[in-house]
Amino acid sequence: MANLIRSGKVKDVYEIDENELEFVFSDRISVFDKIIPSRIPYKGETLARTSTYWFDLLKQKGISTDFIKLTSPNTMRVKRVSVISDYSKLNNNTRNYLIPLELIVRYFVYGSLWDRVKQGLVKPADLGFPHGHEVKQAEPLPEPFFEVTTKLEETDRNLTKEEALKISGLTLKEYDEMRELCLKIDEEINSKVKQRGMIHVDGKKEFAFDKERKLMVIDTFGTADEDRFWDTKEFEQGRYIERSKEFVRQFYRNSGYHEQLYKARKEGAPEPDIPPLPEDMVKKASETYIKLFEDMTGQNFR
C-alpha cells in the first residue's frame, strides 16, 4: 500500500516508488491559505479530470509536465521530484526539484490585485496604464501582469524578481523561460475557454526541474481552484459572474472574515478560525466545479 507522505490544503500525496507519486484530490476547499471546515461534493474529481484535460493538451503542444496518467477519477500519477524547503540548498546546478515559486498572470484588475490598487500599493503605471489613468475594478489590463509568490511557506508572500531568483536556484534565463511558458499555456487556455463562452481572468502555474534540469509544468492549472473565469455574455452586460471558487472568497470577504484574518496577520495576532460554508453555498460550489469541468472540456461529468 502506498505511503502518505504529505497532506496539503486540497490534495494528499502518496509515495509509489522513488520515481513516482500519486496525487489524491480531496473535496476539501481552502481560501486565504485556510482550509474551510466544509467538503464540496465531487470537487476533487473535477480538479483531477480538468487537470488531465490540460496536461493532455500540453503534451500535444510538446510542453513537458510531471503528469503520467489518471489512475482513478480523483487520482493522478505524476513524476516525483524533491521538495526542498531550505532555500540555501538550491542553486543553478540542482536537479529534479520543485521550484518553490508560484507564478500568477493576471489579465484583469480583480481580486487581491484590486485590493492593492485601492490601497495604493500598486500604481496604475505598475500595470501598464498611462499616467493619470483611473483604474477600475474588473478592467482589462493593457498587458499581462506577472506576480511571483512563495510556494512552500505557511502563507504565500509576494516576491520581487531578485527575491525569486535568490530563493529558487533559477538563472535569469530560466526565470524568463518560466514566464514565457506561462504565457504560452495561457494562450491555449484563453483560446479554448473563449470558444466556450468564458473569459480567463487570471491563473497560477507551478514548475519543477526534471533530472536533466529541464523545466516541466507540475501540480494543477486551469481549474476552478487555480484560475478565475467569467461568463462572457454576462461580462458584456457589465456583470462578472464567477466560474471558479472566487465566489467562495467573496463570501468570506462580505462576511467580514477576510478583514479579521488579514488584520490578525498584520498585527501578528492569533488567526481567527474560518467558519464553515452554509449548505446552500456548499451546493452552489459543487455545481460550479462540475459545470466548469463540463463546459471547459466538453465532457459529461457522469
How would you describe this structure in keywords?
single chain; 302 residues; alpha+beta; D-amino Acid Aminotransferase, Chain A, domain 1; six-stranded antiparallel sheet; five-stranded antiparallel sheet; 8 helices; 33% helix; globular
Provide a descriptive summary of the structure in words:
The protein is α+β, with helices and mostly antiparallel strands and 302 residues long. The protein contains eight helices and 13 strands. It has one domain: D-amino Acid Aminotransferase, Chain A, domain 1 (2-Layer Sandwich). The strands form three sheets. Strands 8, 9, 10, 11, 12 and 13 form a six-stranded antiparallel beta sheet that branches. Strands 1-2-3-7-6 form a five-stranded antiparallel beta sheet. The chain has a two-stranded antiparallel sheet with strand order 4-5. A hairpin with a 2-residue loop joins strand 6 and strand 7. Helix 1 runs parallel beside helix 8. The longest helix is centred in the middle third of the chain and has 24 residues.
Terminal residue distance = 29 Å
The SS-based structural class is alpha+beta
**Mean of pLDDT:** 95
- Radius of gyration, rounded? 19 Å
Please give the oligomerization state of what you see: single chain
Helix and strand sequence: EEEEEHEEEHEEHHEEEHHHH
CATH H level, superfamily name: ATP-grasp fold, B domain
CATH class: Alpha Beta
Proportion of residues in β-strands: 25-35%
- Helical content stands at 25-40%
Report on the biggest sheet: 6 strands, antiparallel
Shape: globular
Work out the count of structural domains.
1
Put simply, the count of helices is: 8
